[in-house]
């Protein structure tokens, strides 16, 4: 059964994702570039590695950035939304990366239980899952497929949106900066308030990671509500 979070990412959203995501997240490409750099620093450069990319649909930007930096890495891309995964496959084809990527439509738990990875990414996913239980479950599913001590890049929104009115207004101004009308800005603000459930603080992010079997996380990128961390599976 398709999850409710996957149902949000239909054909219309997949078609606009590349443009919309770069407006909603100022520094979208920098975030993905730095994620690749942090993984390379953690794993050691120029070494073969198998990377699990959870929620890979849309731009496949994390794979593109990692592949450009490390030619000996291979990828397993997982996403429950067929339109989003199709969009990612188009980007992988355009960048000649399909031969380095296994693509799976579905959930992490659909992968073979004995398949293990040297590292993983979960970018832009956690805040689309309602409640702490599914957030912890997806982190636990990733943790179970990582080798001991393997790194995870976690990125997404944190803070309850309504608790940060200045950030929320600045986020609306970001859309205005990109040409949105006043009515469009208000529609975007209404949508973000109703459409996601991010962890309510950085402490909440750390708690979820600890409960799922990860160690302390290092934050290395921020943009308004967005945070990006590197953590490792506890040994």
From TrEMBL:
Record domain Methyltransferase type: where: 57-151
Source organism, top-level taxon: Bacteria
Keyword flag Methyltransferase: yes
InterPro entries tied to this protein: Methyltransf_12, SAM-dependent_MTases_sf
Entry-linked Pfam families: Methyltransf_12
GO biological process: methylation
Protein keywords: Methyltransferase, Transferase
One Gene Ontology term of the molecular function aspect: methyltransferase activity
CDD domains: AdoMet_MTases (cd02440)
PANTHER family: TRANS-ACONITATE 2-METHYLTRANSFERASE, TRANS-ACONITATE 2-METHYLTRANSFERASE-RELATED
Protein name: Class I SAM-dependent methyltransferase
Organism this protein belongs to: Pseudomonas rustica
